[in-house]
Structure prediction request, 548 residues.
Amino acid sequence: MTSKANSEYEVLSPWAEVAPIVQRGISPRVPDLAGKRVGLYLDAKRAAEPILNVVEARLKEKFPVARFSRFANLAKNEEVVKQDIKAEFEDWVKGVDAVVTAFGD
Amino acid sequence: METRNKPTVTLVNKGFFNDAGSASSGKGMPALRVVPLELPYETNVMEDIEPAVNAVMDDIIAGLTKPLTEEEASPKQKEAEKPQRIIFRGSLEEVNRFFYQRGWADGLPIIPPTEEAVAEMLTGTDLPPDHLLGKLISRSGKATVEKIAINAVMAGALPTYMPVLIAGVRLLLESEPGFMGFCTFGFSTGSWAPFWIINGPVRNEIYVNNSSGALSPGNIANAAIGRAMGLIIKNIGGVRKGVEDMGVMGNPLKYTMVISENEEESPWEPLQVEYGYQKEDSTVTVSYPNGYLQHWPYNANDEGILCAVLDNIPRAMRCTTIMTPAHARILARAGWSKESIKTFISEYARGSTSHFGNGGEGAAPDGLTKGKAPVPGAEQTPRIADPSFIRIIVAGGPGAFIAHVVGGGATPGKKQTQKLELPANWDKLVARYKNVVPTYARY
Prediction:
């Protein structure tokens, strides 16, 4: 550390530069859930499954003709597309029209 | 899911709403529709879950069906964020206040990173200041050698620590993505903190304590290397407490947790050799504990040491056990190797499986009442089932204590050790700072 005669310090920024990340929009919504295939996606945390159980029950009451399917990523802190279940996940996504994701923290 | 053109609504606990916003923004999708739930954390109690979900059903349905706004469909692009190089001028107190108020410090005073101090720090590497090692999560900040040096100055590091810091950043960058989250304080509520073990000749040249009070304050290398890595994680990785770092309780080990192995007094091969490097190689090895405990042995023989370990080692995903040189020699004399001790621990360190099952991940069975505890003779499960997740090192001073670094152990199959690259002027550099050691008054 070198100080100036007047005990002032001219200091460099520790905060890193960031290259901009391309900002993408979200997907168009479905007009209605009636008759749609709703995907329910859950992680490994304890609350996720019971949350989706309630979501499914309520949606069934409101949209009796909707269909539901589930996909669970039970590996903690690992992205699903970087695991050996990637192909299974991709097939599952193709088969749904909209998704409710629950993180069970 | 959104990148596959599926409309999605994401349910998170209300306490993680900001974290979810940071994650979606960091992934380039700032308009992700997130619905917060008012719930106890990690609950499976239906009487809490049902009303919480019922209360947001309209939001869930709207999240999937309400047409997109213009901003949601096509968000504004961000410009490159390039902070000014010279950021402030002021007195010691003013510099400290300026940095602290921007969230760039760790609560302790910092050394002002002046041009001169940073230039001196850069003598610790042959890499140019603008050399880019990679981008650190969560903010994808550019980890240049100069930014590492600036944070190192702030932490009070010496230039001789630069090879360790650069190797440490490489470890953060090259870990598996999910695993990397632990070391950058993000991804988890478990308050995991990086624990750095230094091996090889460098540890003596830069005085990384491995003797009395190795993990206590009082040695610059042990203090400043860990502190600098913490500041790098904050200021390059952009990790903010309560946003990306969701550690529930927090962890004092995040200030610093650095040790070296006492290779000279160990009867066993040092850690870097165990991991495939040469004894002459200097390395840094990382793991992510969230706790630390110590106990003493039942007797000064192998049975007394290892039975105490069996009783005291906690249930964890992984662990580093630190044996003193004296205990290590007793064990080696009785024929124990690091490998046989790991196997012994994984087979015989067991605990009662409670009513909730191993690790508390299961549902509470019906009929659980307050005050119930595992009964004698209940099922016993291994505390650390896989011996390859256990790490054993030798360090510590005179006396009979054993330490366990809980949750921070070996991670087979993932990057955990990095060899240090020393600058060409290394010997001169070491000579320049060799007198920077505490010399206590005699009394």
